[in-house]
Amino acid sequence: MTATSRKAAILLAAAMLALTACGAQFAPGRSTDEVLEEEIYGNRGAPRSTLWDFFRGPQDRSRIGKVNKYIWNAALEVLDFLPVESVDPFTGVITTGYGTPPGGGRAYRATIYVTDPALDARSLNLALQTRAGPVSAETARAIEDAILTRARQLRAQDKRL
């Protein structure tokens, strides 16, 4: 065996070991797809997905971009003291960084998920936390109420035009 073929064999063996190590995090008896599905979707029973789904595009194209614009804008207005980190109007997700409300001393961070085009409380999901952990249910409910109230005001203003 020549030195070049020996190096190639060693590289091939190292690559195989590296790939085997990548699969070690998966539980025996479960496919990679099953583990990734659980990581991405949790145990919500969502349809299985593979890499090829990316190329197919979304199955339900009617759901893309269908978020309530009043709830979306109201959430941005009510939580305007929080720096926006990312927004995705197609999925309805707004992610913010930590910010302190005017006159407050505690920093908050929020993730807002607008799930439906209806102006309804069920269309709004809010996760609010401080650096110490999640806020109380009452605080989160008060922010949700403020967002929904502002959304109704925006819709009423829109109807007057």
TrEMBL record:
The record's keywords, sorted A to Z, are: Signal
List, alphabetically, the Pfam families matched. Answer: DUF3576
Signal peptide as annotated in the record: 1-26
What protein name does the entry list? DUF3576 domain-containing protein
